[in-house]
Structure prediction request, 355 residues.
Amino acid sequence: MTKPWFKNLRQIEPYVPGEQSKNENIIKLNANENPYPPSPQVMQALREIRPENLSLYPNSNAQKLVDAIAQYHGVKSSQVFVGNGSDDVIALSFMAFFNSDKPILFPDITYSFYPVWCRLFNIPYETPKVDDNFKIIPSDYYKPNGGVIFPNPNAPTGIGEGKEFIKDILNHNPDSIVIVDEAYVDFGCYSSIELLKEYDNLLVVQTFSKSRSMAGMRIGAAIGNEELIGVLNAVKNSYNSYTLDSVAIECGSAAVNDDEYFKSTLLKISSTRDRVSDIFKKMGFTVYPSQSNFIFVTKNDISAKALFEYLKSKNIFIRYFNLPRIDNHLRITIGTDEQMDTLIKETENYLNGLK
Prediction:
């Protein structure tokens, strides 16, 4: 017999992240994590943390980190908002900006957390289809809407767009907030931050989880005009005044200040990505052009799910999505050269076993 209170429980299908195996002896290429450690300056900041200070609340505005991000991007501190990973920042943005009766718009193939937030916050939405090459069609975003959000580069495809594409979307949506989710932008894609000077309805969201090797620290940021950031802070302070802890603030600030290490890591990952892309193409895979730290691949004459399961049996974890239009595709995070060479070897073994 159903309990009377059961009808009051929220029923929702949650976002499902990449599998987190308890086995430490795996090659983990399924969560788009950075294979390299954070900046040495982050390590130094950790060593300098005074444990006795952890009994105190952190600065509620994470001002040290906000100032560092503002200086890095050449904007005012009042234009920067930080939260507990970009997921937290985007969730708060949904609550802050998407309050129209009109549906918000995002691609049908994109970050799968967007529809979860819409259902959680009761936000109507529509998902215009990307084209056969998985590219977003700008004209699909010309119609009336309650807001627009899309990643650049997109996920899980890794396909990025340039300045004119972003301006096209913005020019056709002057009455809506447009959020560009730049989780992977640092790996070679155009960043919309410079467009903030032209468009006061633009919000750019970034994360420290990917390019700055700090997924375990949970740091995300939004950059926009002062009015938008003010509303974000008001929503945050109505929900959770302390979105970032003291350790994250210190370590995040240190990461931003070490630009040389940051760029050297990006170069290593992009070089490995391009090398691995060429090898997969030679093996007969279709490899979509990636401006991220992962590649999106398919091969018409094999089962992506079967290859996924085979690699998993070899302790190599990649990402398979059992979703319409991409259920024979795989997303592969770029690891170290050694990790990717092992992946390539086992993929070749699998293909040879089918002959």
In short: The chain has ten helices and 13 strands.
